Amino acid sequence: MLRGIQALLDGADHANAGERLQRIWSVVERRLQGRAALDDIALMMVKCRKKPESEADAGMSQTLARGAAAMLQREVVAEALQQAEEMDWQVELKLAAAQLHKTDVIPVLMLMVNNMETQSPTLSSSLFVTLSELFNNALDHGVLEMDSALKQDPAGMELYFEERALRLKNLDHGEIDIRMEKFTAGTNAFLKVTFKDSGQGFDYVTRLDLCTQADSVLLHGRGIMLMQNLCYSLRFMGKGNEVEAILLL
Questions:
Q1: Among candidates 181, 185, 187, 193, which has minimal Cα distance to 230?
Q2: Within the chain, which residues score under 50 in pLDDT?
Q3: How far, in Å, CA of 167 to CA of 173, rounded?
Q4: Strands (E), 85-198
Q5: What's the rounded Cα separation, in Å, for the pair 202 and 142?
Q6: Cα separation of 129 and 120, whole Å?
Q7: N or C of the chain: less Cβ packing under 10 Å?
């Protein structure tokens, strides 16, 4: 695995900008040796301009200031939502083991919202990612009790999904409760999504603290940071087996 990554880096390093993407893809094809890939493969190149240290520091300060302002705004909105009394609609769904075996629940949830709300492409994308992340966390780590630490090993991702498939196949108990509510607070409309699973929960206080560490090199747990950036509010409750996300409609 590590040799393969090094080969990709070498392929990028020994090619000019115009040939770099094709060179990397050639390394991938040689690695596959004519076999079908076990998962989707996506290649993306981003051109980065190295900034002078003083400029980079100033940019970081501006980014932190914007982040702090956005966080304060989200906290205010989340507090207003807790006090909002006007609920436009609410949908609740309970999935037991039999449904978790065979139901592709995300398209079902998306269809429910799409039938009641006119969405922009940006919102639709954010909603899809949010629902997918929250549902997969509830299923994987709540109901199936999967350990994310397995992903920390370079070859662990494949083992993780093999074990996940096996546990899902043999699942005979467990459930996930899903609730979606549209609220209006002032002139804004919000969608509150809540997932609660039958699992043991987790120490979300420690996990949230780890997510704030800039030098974290974990290969898992980044979904929480993604949700914090996508949602106006993200809140874990109880013993960690219930999470509430709020999106602006």
A1: 193
A2: 1-2, 214-217, 219
A3: 11
A4: 87-96, 175-185, 188-197
A5: 9
A6: 14
A7: N
Q: What is the amino acid identity at position 165?
A: A
- The whole-number pLDDT of residue 92 equals 94
Residue 77: name the closest of 209, 248, 249 by CA: 248
Please report whether residue 213 resides in a domain.
yes
User: Residue 52: which domain range?
Assistant: 1-58
Residue 50: partners with Cβ closer than 8 Å, 6 or more residues away:
none
Please state the pTM of the whole predicted model: 0.66
Which positions ≥6 away from 25 have C-beta within 8 Å?
Answer: 43
Q: What residue has token string 């993306």?
A: 44
Q: How far is CA 22 from CA 9, 14, 45, 125, in A?
A: 13, 12, 11, 29
What's the pLDDT score for residue 52? 61
d(CA 77, CA 192): 12
Residue 64 lies in a domain: no
